[in-house]
Hints:
Two copies of one chain form a homodimer.
Chain A (H helix, E strand, L loop, with lengths): L18 H4 L1 H13 L1 E3 H7 L4 H13 L3 E8 L2 E8 L1 H22 L9
Antiparallel strand pairs in A: 1-3, 2-3
Amino acid sequence: MPGGESDARAPHPALSLDEAVHQKTRLALLTLLDEAGQADFAYLKRTLDLTDGNLGRHIDVLTTQGLVETTKEFIGRRPRTWVTITRHGEQALAAEMEVLATLLDRFRNNGTTTRTE
Amino acid sequence: MPGGESDARAPHPALSLDEAVHQKTRLALLTLLDEAGQADFAYLKRTLDLTDGNLGRHIDVLTTQGLVETTKEFIGRRPRTWVTITRHGEQALAAEMEVLATLLDRFRNNGTTTRTE
């Protein structure tokens, strides 16, 4: 690993994770939406096995952070809510994935030493 | 990606993440302890820039789940608390990393399709 001893003083990569993206249900939502571009509420609810309330709360967090947008359309009298990942959401997910890749590399290259003060 | 359309019905890999391990501070703690085998409270506190209370709460969660163990020793009259990752903690971290690798693979192999019900 480049840096050797000096990296013991660098901030741990996991500290830069954003809980808005990292929390497991929201990470699932963002990766699904990144794959799909957009998906409707019913699909997300069924695929992630969430209640209306639980999915709604996570969509709210993501919307407040500007990571997704929702639009409602009517098929006849039946409403359908579409959820779309924003450009900012794509960037935030890419940043999360970059940190996860760093953590994975560290884990896979793990040696055994004892750290103390 | 193997499975094609049928994987739309498989549980999303992120759903199998364990929040005890996945939460970012605990993920940082477990990866540090996996690298170090053990570390003392002061080192973890400083490295992860946590307060005593915050670190203590996360160590409590990890201890309750059997992922780490703590032991106290005295250097003269000065107490030092050592935190050690357990075998179960190593296995749980390895399981987390396996899911993260799956998410990363999906992200990197991402095509563009629209998912609906």
